[in-house]
Amino acid sequence: MPRPVAESNIKLTNGDLIVNDKNTPSFNKLTNLYSVSKTLRFELRPQFSTLEHIKDNKIIQKGEELKSHYEIFKKILDQVFIKLIDDSLDHTYFDLKLIEQFNDLKIKPREQFTEKDATNLRSLKDVMKKQIDKNLDSPEKKSIFKDPANFLLDNINQYSDIINSQRQSIEAFKRQKGYLSGYLQNRQNIFDRTTNETSVAFRIVEDNLPIILNNQMILSRFLNTIADKDSLLTQIKSAIEKLGANINFETFFELDYFNRTLSQSGIEKYNLLISGKTTDQNTKLKGINELVKEYIDQHQGEKLKKIKLKKLYKQILSESTTSSFAFDIIDTNEDLMEMIGNFLQLAYERVKEKISFLEKIESLKDHNQNSTIDLIQVYIERRNLKRLSSYIFKEFDFIEQKLEEKFVAQFSGKLTKKALDSYRKKQNFSLQEVYNGLQGIQYELNDNNASAQDLFLSGIPDFIYHGLDCHLQNLLEKVQSENLLFQEISQLQSKNIEQNSFHHPTFDQKSISGIKEILDFYKTFQVNLSLFNINQEDGKVELDPEFYSDFDELYSDLREIIPVYNKARNYLTKKPFSTEKTKLTFDNSYLLNGWSKRKEKSCFGTIFKKDQKYYIGIINSQTKTKDTLFEPHNFSESLQDQDCYEKMNLYFLSDLKRDFPHKYFSEKWDKKHHIPAELHKKYEYYRQDKNKDEQKADLTYHHELIAYYQNCLSKDEECQIYNFKLKDPKSYANVSDFLADLTPNTYRMDFTKIPESYIKKLVDDGKLYFFQLYSKDFSENSKGKPNLHTLYLKAVFDQINAEKFNYSYKISGEAEIFYRPASLECKVTHEKNKPIQNKNKNNHKKESVFSYDLLKDRRYMMDKFFLHLPIELNRTPLHSKDSVINQEVNQIVKLRSKNYFLGIDRGERHLIYLVLIDEDGKIIKQQTLNQISNQYKNQNGETETVTTNYHDLLDAKEKQRKESLQEWQTVENIKELKAGFLSNVVNEIGKIITEYQPVIMLENLNTGFKNSRIKIEKQVYQKFEINFPNILGWANYIYRHDKTTTKSQMFEMLKQPSNSIVENYILPWCGDESDFDTVMDALNDPANRKDLGAFYTPLPYVKEATKLVRQAISSLPKGMDYVILDRCAGTGALEHYLTEEELSHVILNTYEIKEWLVLYNKYIGKVRAIIPPLSMVKAVKGNLVTGGDALAEEFLSIPMETDGKHNTLQEVIDDKNVAIIGFENPPYSSELARAQEGNIKSKDKYSYIRKLMSDEFTGDSSHAKDLLNQFVWSFEKYFMRSEHDYYILFAPVKYWKSVGLMKKTFVDGFLANRGNFKAQESSVLVAQWKNEVDTITESLTVPAKEIWKDDKKWGTGKGAAVIDVPEDAILKDVKHVTVRKVYKTLGEYYSKKLKTDVLSKIATGYDGREVSLKSYGKPVYNDNILAVIEASGFGTTPQDIRMTRIAIYHGRGSQVRTTNYAEQTALFVAKQYPQRKWYERDIYYTTADKGDLYKKDIDFLRKSTLWTCISQKNHCLSFHGSDGKFYNNEMCLDENSLVRKELVEQEKYGKLDRADLMLLGVFDELLELAKDTPEYNSKYNYGTYQIELEINTSYKDGNGKKIFNNEKVNTKLKELKTRLADYYENELESKLFEYELLK
């Protein structure tokens, strides 16, 4: 229940955001919070004789030459990188165990592949990728990225084969590294495993390793099925020898062979084995694929399925041989025709070759008689089912809907949401599956009902050819006709090979239409055929090798139409002008890298202004007086009557932490000013020893250093311009604080007047190039509002920027100048003085007349220069990236007296629709922005209102563009129209924001929304930039869309949003992942997010527990102060029912940043203290807060956000007049402890409390691993120090029952159902402990309480909506449960290994089947060992007990021998206790507390043995081991087993009673039924488990119903399981409790 906000003042992280009752907070304060970088773009117009000097000095020519050298140098560097990669990979070797683990996971059947397997596979891949990246990280690589040109020149002999005669291109970049920055950044991705497809690691691990493993499996299976295996092997070995592969064929099947295929040379050798090659003498040397194909063709009687091994992908940067990429860019008509001709030849040959394959598809029309396709092993992806369904049934979801209905029906109303969600994620459906799913469904077609099954299969061939104007019978004829049409176009084009002077296409419209028709045919054919193209879901579908071998060959060639089609269309529809630019360097690689006055002579540039216009001057590199060029003595005449420019003088200290030591501890400074020797010595101590942290130095050193820096500043003439306000050194906490205090004042700007005549003279003398920064806003005829770039530029140099905002707008370095030559002939579009119709029909002025000629695309008719000028907004932001901006916004919203909300909806009927409401839901304003009105002054000075209908304009533009696209005509730009609309939209919204300061709400950009917006031209979204405030939102949006997305894929999507779910919403992110280091854990993908152990605590249980708190408070002496401590408060659920008075005693702590924010907003001003305080909150170790770790050594001394009574917890502990009442629900599991430790460096692997507990705890030190135990032990140790201290604790009872913690007096409590905590059902003890020692009590009796509502038990478990347990739900006592302490585990009864035992050569898994031995396991073998069981620990879950015929691979467990099997089965029986009720779980433990008394009860031993040998939970199997031994199952009651002979026939443990005989009789009946099945093996002794596993097999019929091959066996198995459960309850349970095997 929400409470009113406390009336006390609330201080937010921004110092001037102070809110109280008399002050209504405003969003106006939420400014200058983050710095933002922008790049301004302007035209540069040469002034005076600048252009002549540019031409004379060949500035443009040099830029174009450098551009040409750049293309060459890139190719050289690529070859160097290839060599570097190959050399590194040739020395990379993966441990065989890694490959084995990878293979085990990849071949695991899909139905057995768990989420844990998926996690393990991801971890395994990451380990392998890290190894690759580490090997690639060589000194050579670092040197190349640091200075590529000089590296190559210094190592020219090493790379002579690559460099050849291209040294000139390398020399060109000796001083031009900045030119390469984009290229080098791109190439860095190759060596970074997180960049996915672009990295070497991804190519090896994700692409090629699965191919190799799959090829090995396919070929191995094939060789084991053929009759003449030896003959084929001989041919393959001979072929390998001829190919010169230099390997034994046997090694091809070894997993270790993968290590030979990492580099490109290894890949080429592998692919050579697969495909063979043609020699220079035109002789074909066959590869494995061809030899296998020949064998299949020659042995048709064997009815073998075709297989085809897949070739490996080439290594990153290696050359591609694909025909369509022969031209990276189509530059000429000849290039285009050659590319298309190559493709048509390839396509014709492949289609002709695959006619027989297409005939197979055609046979689906007669599937009942002649179909040659295996419907079970040919698949269609879900997305392609929609296409097929739309074509056949005219409804895109008809097939999917019918399949889902069939799936749901088989569950008879018991379908779970999880099962349905899993089904809906399924991507691939076999033809058989779809065919079966349509059984019995009639579809009305042409007024007749037809079978949907028949329509489905017969419709597939028709679908393949729809839109092609042909069918299979005349396909080749159609292909030939398209080729003839292309030949006609080629002949016509050869007669007209000239192109215009600007290299634009010269095809006539008829030829363009012909080319489009040809390529449309193949594009349609490829798209239709993609019906069978599937994502194999990591190999989890079984494909028909023959069908997909043919399909892959045909489809892979037809897919070449995609780049061919795109390049042809782009060439033929390209704009008649070129936007290509050349970067100019003016003979200086550092050109415009900086603007400060001291950088003018090295960066050559500065800014001028005059008459509200701006100019840039670039000093000629040949000018000798660069540093004094603009000094006043150069223009001695008076400035008063001169027309002057104002030159910018910029003073900027970019990095004080670097600059101060560099300058003030230099030899130069020491000689002039003398550095204090002792301080210099200390400084050098910290500088030279990287392990010493200067920030941790004593305070005296910091104050000495600050005082020294202040002294230096007073002497440094260059720094006087900054006018630093220096404070007492002792007022700073450290040097960093001092430097941070100076930083806002490290940017200053002033201007010097320079006569225009002097500037002109410099230009005329060739010493200076001078340009005006130009845009339409600087035109003499400019009207309307200036654009943002102009506004930003003016703001940088505005006096208000300096005086009022302390230079919030800052000019940045690394500006660039570009040149774009003219690419259109000058041609008048509309002559002057002739009327022209206005496009806006709502304009009162229907036509306009211009006194000058109009030239369409005039800007491309002349040479242009451009400036790209970076600036920074919010130079010194008030917030760091650690700031909690959401908290501040929420506080303002909460405290404002009146809130407004502006809803913005974007669609098609309304491009933008606005609704403004108040907090009561009343509509204040609503409007559509389809039409936007603006007011203008007409020629008579009168105000006119002009309304522009942007909806109609965009609609018309959309239709025009669509027609152009369809006809391959040049597509008109729509960008300007959209931008104009958006600028008006922003203006309209801005008016509302200014007046009402509303909270703005946008609609959720979900997939359904996106799919509903089909008309792309009217999507008018302003794309977002990714930054610190919004990264979490975008990450979660991506994860919600696809929960399988990894964090690396998410970041890649942000960097390259095209073709992803965010492409329409964000701009490509160009930052670094380190920008988000403080929230990196919060950005983890769903599969890897670590659970910190917090559980939701249902309110009814909180209410009941609050009573225990109040009992403790009421027992205190009158007037005694107390605190209620919750060290793991989460979001403060436990404190929900505390009164204001009780809350004023509460101290809260939590460790997770998002929880801390909620806690702080909820309870600040109400509780006594919060740990850590706001001042310390910054995210560390991912999403954890500094000072919030309750298990850390410094926790007791962490300052608290407090009311002032106690500043730390240690002060509370030391105050004997204060009682401490703990009220906590800590994390429960040891897995969570490990998860937490996974976030900590190895040197600090365990928490302080864990280390301390391991040393001091008198019990088993392994219990210290558990977070729960650490919390309980630390509370008992530190906070229970007087008789008035209490601990009210939510936790599983193990801490008291088995661990031995909390040896205190139990006062009161109850059991809660953990299933209501959004977990599995089990017991949680809510207990009140008083600080009085109690070492005597052995048992506790408490009520078990369930949550009920409306006479029904409330839902439990992970899948139920248990978070929504209502406050008015009640608790019901359902049982009084007695909890007893336990001391010894069943491990006490384990049998010992014998001297005669030997190491086993084989082992089993938990399922009883043989598995590979592990290096760390030492399983033993002996003829007298009948089985091995694991039954250690106190628990009774399935993971706590296992029984197999021989040792499990890790070698642990107890040996069940011929001499002890009856005693050992009692352990197995004890562990099988069913725990039917939630209040039995985590309460009933197995123990050895009563010693071996049970061994004397012969009846109990007999019954334990009988039940164990018949139970299906006994996983002993009969099998032939790979070591040559036959392992028969003796731990069963087959008539031939050893145990049956001794137990039944010899009555070794007494005579079987009636209950025994009845159970045995049912088993015997099952055994007889099993003997009558074809699967029965007379050599085996069968137990129930093996019968169920190998004989009770099943399949699914056409309706998906499960059919058992041996129905009688299945029925008898069900009966036996029921009898086993009854026998356990009636014959064994009471004895288990009597002998305390269960307690």
Structural key phrases:
1639 residues; alpha+beta; eleven-stranded mixed β-sheet; ten-stranded antiparallel β-sheet; 53 helices; globular
Helix-strand layout with pairing:
Elements (H helix, E strand, L loop, with lengths): L9 E2 L6 E2 L16 E11 L3 H7 L2 H32 L5 H11 L8 H22 L2 H8 L1 H7 L5 H4 L3 H5 L9 H8 L11 H24 L5 H15 L20 H12 L1 E2 L5 E2 L2 H11 L34 H21 L1 H8 L16 E3 H12 L4 H12 L7 H9 L2 E3 H7 L4 E4 L2 E4 H14 L9 H20 L14 H21 L15 H14 L2 H12 L9 E3 L15 H4 L1 E6 L2 E7 L24 E9 L3 H9 L2 H7 L3 H12 L10 H17 L19 H8 L4 E9 H9 L3 E7 L13 H10 L1 H5 L5 E3 L4 E5 L15 E2 L9 E2 L15 E10 L11 H11 L4 E7 L5 E7 L4 E6 L2 E7 L5 E7 H17 L8 H22 L2 E4 L4 H6 L18 H11 L5 H9 L43 H16 L6 E6 L13 H4 L2 E4 L3 H11 L5 E3 L7 E2 L3 E2 L15 E2 L6 H6 L3 E7 L5 H8 L10 H9 L10 H12 L7 E6 ...
Parallel strand pairs: 21-26, 27-28, 27-33, 28-29, 33-34, 35-37
Antiparallel strand pairs: 1-2, 3-15, 3-20, 4-5, 6-7, 8-9, 10-17, 11-12, 11-13, 12-15, 13-14, 16-20, 17-20, 18-19, 21-22, 22-23, 24-25, 29-32, 30-31, 34-36, 35-36, 37-38, 37-39, 40-43, 41-42, 44-45, 44-46, 47-48, 49-50
Helix pairs in contact: 3-4, 4-10, 5-6, 11-13, 14-21, 14-23, 14-24, 16-20, 19-20, 21-22, 22-24, 48-49, 49-51, 49-53, 51-53
